[in-house]
């Protein structure tokens, strides 16, 4: 299996020893629900197959069923294997947990969306919304909050070990969005999902009910850095000559190529290119924060990546030459 949950009907079911499986990378912040496990174990019904990542034997979806089977003292369980990487497996697990079984909480889904935005930033808001059961507006708010719109540090760690944002504006706006879409959600659930204090969530609710902005005037755009509104120098904006603009233009051009868009291998290539080139200069945001003892290691990684790109460029150039002159290719 290499696709989403819709592909499960075509995946064979296998019986495997329970002790051969690895605990899930669960999207549930609080882990499995013991009461739900007990009810499943006592139900006496046969469980549908669980979903397992083939390369690691890690459970993607079905930890409640697995633990219920253990309570029944069963030593084997039916599984369906998924052939994907860790991040794809996590996304598939989230999607599966919003369509059946014990539903993910609002906080679970918001945390999962935050993680997906981080590991798959090129996925559309609609795609992430579909996987997590949230609205596209909520995903946009989560993406804005998790991406750290300011160029500096977006949060600090206190003496108690808790991470606190320097600005609550993104969290307040996300909380307001969640309240609008989940009017029955508790303040605690909203605060946890939005990453703000319960008191802050209460203030947001009161402000919204009063017809005010969820963000007080003195907190709006508090995280704007000195360079947020810098106007590009003449000739830089919109001419496609800056490296970032050029890369995006090339990617958009490739994405419109029918030979890539309408083939599975072509779409895979496009996803790979977006993941590895869309923010190729993102290192500039972090380079001054790299600890000295990590600099040599990261420098080696950078040179290895540069060498890999150089090798790819050479390979493509040789292929182009051979296509233009087949005799030259045979001479090599």
UniProtKB/TrEMBL annotation:
Residue ranges with Polar residues bias: 143-153
Region (Disordered): 143-168, 212-245
SUPFAM superfamilies, per the entry: ParB/Sulfiredoxin (SSF110849)
Residue ranges annotated for the ParB-like N-terminal domain, each copy included: 14-98
InterPro entries in alphabetical order: ParB/Sulfiredoxin_sf, ParB_N
Protein name as it appears in the record: ParB-like nuclease domain-containing protein
Source organism per UniProt: Amycolatopsis tolypomycina
